[in-house]
Amino acid sequence: MQEIIIYGAGRTGKAVWEVCCRCGINVVAFIDRMTAGEFCGISVVRADMIPVDTDRTLPVVLALHDDVHNAAVAVKNAGFENVMTLSAFNIYLRRNSVAAVELVPLFDPEIFSGSCDEIADAVY
Question: Which helix (H) or strand (E) element contains residue 15?
Answer without folding.
Answer: helix 11-23
